[in-house]
């Protein structure tokens, strides 16, 4: 069968707005090709808006089945164009949706987008080939595990398929999209494990393994991971990559041993100059594993610490005491990978001013590990999560499955969030610019670092001031809230304009110095 697999582009302020390879459809493409199917695939988010329509038509050409992967609500708006293209190019194609979002919002999706014949929930490596066999044979595909469809207007769901018990049994993911990835400057992705043993209330990665049959966390063997790296190196020359597992270092001694073996294997291939990114939980960090990761070439790390407030940490279900975050950060500071990214959720529906104060003091202490944009990080509520159930039960959820919204319990926090989001947006962009200064940019690095540092200090002080003001205001003082908002916004604008002015002067000075040298 000819099959088209698609990843829709998310709605985003940035023309691309993607974070990496769509590993879900790439893994499925390999499985389907091994079954003899012809698979075309495309991630429309890796293309600029004016390239997408033509790419969509090409990938759908002659398709008997179109599979669309959705991981977030921001991709849903693009479904209108995709459905229109399917009706034009391959009107008889069977259309299915899969991925994290459809798995937990299957019925709502089918009702909102009637052209979708079914949702395939859960891991599809075993279920999709079976579904295709039924479609080809003209037998009843509705009985396949994981299928949700509408029958005479009623949703009918089969139980979730089991999770693939042995990830080593799967072929390596297809790498069709490496040229697209390269064109936008992103590195290839490896997924070496699936699932999570933690219980964060906002995360679908922990929900799904508790619904389907199988272990909470499954890892590929070190042998498999190293063989995939060898193939990426020999076929595509890949030495820089990102491991986008939820938890690269798995639980307990088993998880540490696997990570150590992978690191040792990468180290023995050191001549290739491997550099990589990995994400993991704070609790798995220790001196031994950090030394091995750095020895293997890990230069960027992400730890989902989320918050420095013990009460917020408990509310988010992180299931580890705040001391674990402190200990992990001490280890990170001793080993200092090139880039440390600390996952951050400062605003959740029940955040209090006291929690914000606790957070900002620690963020100030850890300085440039945080970016200004993280000061307005807000919890996203996703279908299927405990956070969704909790807010729904309390009547707090607004919007729908493809984009939930909520008001903060404490109106002062809502006021502070809106103010900070508006006032710090340009300041955060300027900080990004200063951080990304390279040899091509007409601003010397030390000047950029100085400006970036000043912006950072301003943002921290500004945050403190906003929270201090909101803590002091009473609910019935609306005129005072407005006046304070005006005053604070004016202050942020002045900082923005002053920084832009200084950048322009530095750029002019650097350009004129370069011209003099050239003469
Ligand atoms: S540790 Fe990360 S992957 Fe695991 S449940 Fe929490 S947020 Fe999700």
Automatic annotation (TrEMBL):
Residues 1-142 form the B12-binding domain. Keywords: Iron, Iron-sulfur, Metal-binding, Methyltransferase, Plasmid, S-adenosyl-L-methionine, Transferase. Its cofactor is [4Fe-4S] cluster. It comes from the Bacteria. GO terms for molecular function: 4 iron, 4 sulfur cluster binding; catalytic activity; cobalamin binding; metal ion binding. InterPro entries: BchE-like (IPR051198), Cobalamin-bd (IPR006158), Cobalamin-bd_sf (IPR036724), Elp3/MiaA/NifB-like_rSAM (IPR006638), Methyltransferase_Class_B (IPR034466), rSAM (IPR007197), rSAM_horseshoe (IPR023404), rSAM_sf (IPR058240). Coiled coil: none annotated. PANTHER family: ANAEROBIC MAGNESIUM-PROTOPORPHYRIN IX MONOMETHYL ESTER CYCLASE-RELATED, BLL1977 PROTEIN. This is Radical SAM domain protein. The lineage of its organism: Bacteria, Pseudomonadati, Pseudomonadota, Alphaproteobacteria, Hyphomicrobiales.
């Amino acid at each position: 069968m000819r099959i088209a697999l698609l990843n829709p582009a998310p709605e985003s302020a940035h023309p691309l707005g993607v974070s990496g390879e769509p590993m879900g459809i790439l893994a499925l493409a390999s499985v389907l090709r091994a079954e003899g199917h012809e698979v075309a695939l495309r991630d429309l988010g890796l293309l600029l808006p004016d390239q997408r329509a033509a790419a969509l038509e090409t990938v759908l050409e002659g398709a008997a089945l179109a599979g669309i992967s959705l991981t977030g609500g921001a991709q849903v708006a693009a479904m209108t164009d995709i459905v229109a293209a399917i009706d034009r190019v391959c009107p008889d194609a069977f259309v299915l949706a899969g991925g994290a979002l459809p798995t937990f919002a299957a019925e709502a999706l089918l009702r909102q987008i009637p052209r979708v014949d079914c949702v395939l929930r859960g891991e599809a490596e075993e279920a999709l080939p079976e579904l295709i066999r039924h479609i080809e044979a003209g037998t009843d595909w509705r009985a396949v595990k994981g299928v949700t469809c509408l029958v005479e207007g009623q949703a009918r769901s089969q139980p979730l398929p089991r999770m693939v018990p042995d990830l080593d049994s799967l072929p390596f993911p297809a790498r069709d999209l490496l040229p697209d990835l390269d064109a936008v400057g992103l590195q290839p992705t490896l997924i070496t494990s699936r699932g999570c043993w933690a219980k964060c209330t906002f995360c679908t990665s922990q929900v799904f393994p508790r619904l389907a049959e199988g272990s909470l966390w499954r890892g590929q063997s070190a042998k498999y991971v190293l063989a995939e790296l060898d193939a990426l190196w020999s076929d595509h020359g890949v030495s820089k990559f990102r491991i986008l597992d939820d938890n690269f270092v798995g639980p307990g001694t088993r998880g540490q041993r696997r990570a150590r073996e992978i690191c040792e294997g990468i180290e023995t291939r050191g001549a290739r100059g491997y550099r990589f990114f990995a994400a993991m939980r704070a609790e798995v960090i220790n001196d031994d594993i950090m030394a091995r990761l750095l020895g293997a070439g890990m230069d960027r790390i992400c730890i989902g610490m989320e918050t420095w407030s013990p009460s917020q940490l408990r509310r988010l279900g992180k299931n580890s005491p705040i001391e674990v975050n402190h200990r992990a950060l001490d280890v990170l500071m001793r080993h200092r990978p090139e880039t440390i990214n600390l996952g951050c959720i400062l605003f959740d529906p029940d955040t209090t001013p006291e929690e914000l104060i606790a957070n900002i003091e620690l963020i100030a202490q850890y300085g440039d590990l945080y970016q200004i944009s993280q000061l307005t990080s807000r919890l996203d509520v996703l279908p299927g999560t405990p956070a969704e159930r909790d807010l729904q039960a309390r009547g707090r959820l607004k919007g729908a499955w493809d984009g939930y919204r909520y008001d903060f319990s404490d109106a002062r926090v809502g006021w502070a969030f809106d103010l900070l989001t508006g006032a710090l947006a340009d300041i955060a962009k300027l900080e990004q610019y200063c951080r990304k200064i390279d040899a091509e940019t007409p601003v010397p690095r030390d000047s950029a670092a100085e400006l970036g540092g000043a912006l950072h200090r301003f943002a921290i002080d500004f945050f403190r001031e906003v929270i201090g003001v909101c803590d002091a205001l009473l609910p019935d003082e609306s005129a005072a809230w407005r006046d304070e908002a005006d005053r604070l916004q004016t202050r942020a604008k002045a900082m923005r304009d002053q920084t832009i002015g200084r950048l322009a002067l530095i750029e002019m000075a650097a350009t004129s110095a370069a011209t003099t040298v050239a003469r």
